[in-house]
Amino acid sequence: MDITLREARLADYQNMLELYKELDDMHRMEYPELFIEPEGEVRPFEYIQKQIEEDDKYLVVAETADRIIGFAECAVMESSSFPVLRKRKWVELNSLVVRKGDQGMGTGKMLLDRVVMWSRERKINRIELQVYTFNSGALDFYKKKGFQNLHSRMYLDV
To answer: Residue 43 belongs to what domain range?
Structure first.
């Protein structure tokens, strides 16, 4: 199966909603106290439009001849002004999704490589992301690609 990458287009909106739903369902099943099923679309059209049109955001899709099978979305972030924090910019990888039935063909690596290339073009040398601990597949993927733990976020229900 040939997989190609390209920047997302507004016409991709409906197809992308299926992938967002798959991602959201996985998180909602694991953490129902944090995630809910939205009453409307899983992402508003305006959200996708900003991902596509704003210069500091990037949305790339992976597709086969007949459908979108994955995407990566990221944005340039800048540290706040705080006395002990070094001023810096990084790329926040907000989502990298490959449709369940299409995993294991290198699509995730292709998408991540494209995000790395986009980051380098902007002369940004760090990509950061958040992964929930239940998502062992994603954790393994990112570790194999060289990502390191930066910190842990913990919680206590009281």
So the answer is: 4-144
